[in-house]
Design brief:
It contains 6 helices and 8 strands. It has 179 residues and is an alpha+beta fold. Strands 1-2-3-4-5-6-8-7 form an 8-stranded mixed sheet, sandwiched between helices.
Length: 179
């Protein structure tokens, strides 16, 4: 699976597996504390209803473990200071021709909103997918109420996609990587 090796650097960010960015005995505690603070009411408002509500350390650890079972969760950190600012969540579907389709989600800390970090992360992911050579497409779903997330994807060349399964609460956007 291609996404297991995903990591990249942008002008301001490092995106990598949390265990490579947070080392030491307290790494899981730091990760869970970050997830707990990241998933605020404002941040989760347009996300799945099961992600909403208050988080304590146990719920944060469970949430992270669930995302890891579904795919790969990468930590987004500042390049200059290594401070975590978000998470990039990827899942992969392998195709019979050996190529893969990637589903992307991202969560940026409320304190980092409005700085273009989500756009930068998605651009970095798109570049990584192009360089990988086995990724056919990247798909991201956006709630109708999240115009900012739709703009992030559109700025990176994603286009609205008609699918066989209709989303009542939003739109799927697709970025074609290879034909």
């Amino acid at each position: 699976m291609a996404i297991r090796t995903c990591s990249f650097v942008t002008d301001r960010l490092v995106v990598d597996d949390w265990s490579r960015l947070l080392a030491g005995d307290s790494a899981e505690t730091i990760r869970d504390s970050f997830v707990m603070s990241l998933l605020s009411d404002a941040v989760t408002r347009d996300l799945p209803s099961g992600w909403q509500g208050r988080y304590d350390m146990d719920r944060a650890a469970s949430w992270f473990a669930e995302r890891q079972r579904e795919g790969t969760v990468l930590l987004i950190a500042g390049r200059s200071d290594d401070n975590p600012v978000g998470l990039l969540i990827l899942s992969e579907s392998e195709r019979s021709d050996g190529a893969s389709d990637i589903r992307v989600g991202y969560v940026i800390a409320e304190s980092a909103w409005g700085q273009g970090l989500a756009t930068e992360v998605v651009a970095g992911l798109a570049d990584w997918c192009r360089a990988n050579g086995t990724i056919r497409s990247v798909v991201g779903g956006v709630a109708d109420s999240s115009g900012a997330s739709a703009r992030v994807l559109q700025k990176n060349g994603f286009i609205p996609t008609l699918t066989d399964h209709h989303r009542d609460d939003g739109v799927e956007y697709t970025l074609a990587i290879m034909p």
